[in-house]
Amino acid sequence: MTDISQPNPDTSMAQPAEKVPRVVVFDSGVGGLSVLDALQRQLPGHQYYFVSDNAGFPYGTRSEYSLTQRVHKVLRQIMPHLQPDLLVVVCNSASTVVLPSLRESYETPFVGVVPAIKPAAALSKTGVIGLLATPATVQREYTHRLVREFAPNCRVEMHGSGELVEIAERAIRGVAPGPMQMQQALQPLIDRCSEEVDTLVLACTHFPLIKQWIEPYFPSVQHWVEPADAIARRVESLLGKGQPGLTEQPRAILTQADGDLDALQAYLGKLGFGPVEVREIDAAH
Ligand code: DGL
């Protein structure tokens, strides 16, 4: 008869197989990819899942209530399915409002992205900072509190644009914006600060993807502030570097079939993704 009170020497000596940390990068659309790229380069030892709630897109025009409902609805399906070790809400519009309730609802650690006003204030010499975001982010009390707290002596000129988000979505599907379109989308900010602005915060994760088309309109800008590296540092501080030598393919999940899936798939393919998975989540919040 086997004595079950004693551990079996063979199994107690065996090393448990190390689990590859799972990191979910979550956004309404392709904005998450601007951060995923930095995560993959700096922390290649994690298994990455890019989740785009394209059925709920855009987030940047939703009210706080609607956005909170929507993110919780999507995560109620995604969390049990993927069981991540960490989830990055790579969306300013969402992070500025839903992080506290997500942290209350799940034990999983969440990392968010909010407008980088503090680093911008530290970098600016002229004290004039531009901030490009979605309409929702520029309206959020959270954003205005950041300005009061971290840039009280700066002039922070904000512009919220849903059009720039759409431009980024089309750009990664191979449709580059024309100069007229960019000019129109940026004009409100150009009018208010093009001469003195030396620091520009890209406070929507879609915008680093179209930075090359934004830059020419702001020749005085010395510092472009983007969140990707800070997020990578935060993920590393919570999860470590992951498994060395890992070559797991990142996986992409959409919440509805994409109207232009081939173009999106081609872009994702260049970033090393395999076939996109669709997990339908209806658009109502
Ligand atoms: N990428 C998101 C952000 O950082 C939102 C884009 C949208 O869905 O409007 O705010």
Give the beta-strand count: 10
Runs in which pLDDT lies below 50 for 5 or more consecutive residues are: 1-16
Report the principal-axis shape: globular
As a whole number of angstroms, the C-alpha radius of gyration is: 21 Å
Helix share, percent: 40-55%
Bound molecules: D-glutamic acid
Sheet having the most strands: 6 strands, parallel
**How are the strands of the largest sheet arranged?**
4-3-1-2-9-10
Separation of the first and last Cα atoms: 58 Å
Instruction: Count helical runs.
Output: 12
Q: Your description of this structure?
A:
The structure is a single chain. With 285 residues, the chain is of the alpha/beta class. 43% of the residues lie in helices and 15% in strands. The protein has helices spanning 9-13, 32-42, 64-82, 92-105, 117-123, 135-139, 141-150, 162-172, 179-193, 211-214, 228-239, 261-270, and strands at 22-27, 47-52, 86-89, 110-112, 128-133, 155-160, 199-202, 223-225, 251-254, 277-278. Strands 4-3-1-2-9-10 form a six-stranded parallel β-sheet, with helices on both faces. The protein has a four-stranded parallel β-sheet with strand order 6-5-7-8, with helices on both faces. α2 (32-42) packs across α11. The chain is globular. Residues 1-16 have low confidence and may be disordered. The site of D-glutamic acid has 17 residues, from α4.
